[in-house]
Amino acid sequence: MFYNRSALKQRAKQLVRQGNPAMYMITLVYILATTWLSTVCGLVVANPINRAAEVMDSWSETIAQTGNLSQGAMDALTQQIWACFRGPAAMIGLLAALILSFYSMVVALGYYGCTLRTMRGQESGGYRELFSHFDLAGKIILLQVLKFVFTYLWSLLFLIPGIVAIYRYRLAEYCLLDDPDIS
Predict the structure, then answer these.
(1) Is the pLDDT of residue 53 over 70?
(2) DSSP code of 125?
(3) pTM greater than 0.70
């Protein structure tokens, strides 16, 4: 079966133009609802994972410059990383990051649904479609966790099975959109 790439491209452009509201506006709302919200929360509550990554970066630069890595340096690095996760502010930051990641997963599924309906030529749910899948939040989160676990386990075998697993599970969200009752 052969596909005419230019005809597919023209059809996609036409469907995107016909969308009501416009797909670029839905995409803008999606970006604001996920990335912007995450950035604002990051300014209010610091994510300890980001702080730990900054500590690791500074230590890796120091080790690269000196070329020296002693047991004392490793102990100091470990203590600094653990210090990032201590205290109530760190716990609040971790909880906020976890809630935001779950929220982003659900809103992403809404965006996938909106684009899927647009490309099928169906009436788009508009902005409401972005936030309409919170009833499936448990399934969405479980799906993402299972995708990560299976991809990780396949990647342990070698690089190629991991890449195959990524492609194998790539359309799982669309299967969930087509049949929300699927187990």
Answers:
(1) yes
(2) -
(3) yes
